[in-house]
Amino acid sequence: MTKKKDIEYSYGLIDKIFRLSIGETGDLSCALYNGDFSLSLEQAQRRKHEFIYDYLSIEEGSRVLDMGCGWGPFLNFLKEKNVKGVGVTLSDKQMESCKKNGFEVYVMDCKTIKPETFGLFDAMVSLGAFEHFCSVNERDPENQKRVYNDFFKTVYNLLPAGGRFYLQTMTFNKNMIDYEDIDIHAEKKSDAHILALVQRQFPGAWLPVDDDQIIESVKPYFKLLYKSNGRLDYIETISQWRKRYMRFTFRKYALFLSLLYSYLSNREFRQRLGKIIGISPHQACFERELLNHFRFVFEKE
Prior knowledge:
This protein is 46% helix and 16% strand.
């Protein structure tokens, strides 16, 4: 599991910039375009939330757990639908933002949740948090299998029979290079360098090998109802985020100016901030098919 300090490292820096650019309950996970790139970012994110709501058979009065809730975009959607949403995150900044917006959110490792913690839920979601569940030190295939099996067992224990779980996550893709070849000192814009920038921005995290690894890990507990590939959607989502990051507002650019000294004097800080104002290593990884992205719906057996 990625450590809490690494989560804060990744999300604490962009907290204010993200909220000023995308909104107080902005969604930092891939939108659902399904090939229709005429949609605005907001429309595509709304389409994703509607899809999850419908496919998980959520209805007014349901109880839903969001594992890795971010700044609360899906909790906000559930609130509009008169659904009881509970969120968990490892980021203090995200929790504070969620609390300010009236959401029930707790700072905790979602893999430690038991039925007695909050009771059972009618449905559960995880949008982007799965990417942090396995650490670099746990990247051995047998360790990964154990980590994912433990997580799906946790989800299984929190749902009734027939309960559904929506999972959205990045994975590695067919052009992924060996871990030992990832190098921040490699030629700039090479695969090795781009992947090292990704690791600088999200230290400690290691992705699933592919979608098959996830499907195999879930088998003892759930059956697969739905799977789709969102790689192209993620390229478009990142492109739209970046436009909003650079859109001028006085408050946001005052914040950028406050970071200028650190940006100029600290190479590691520049690499971390590159996601926002420099090249986007994640976008490059999706374009080069180093990374992939999947959406799943599972149903408890």
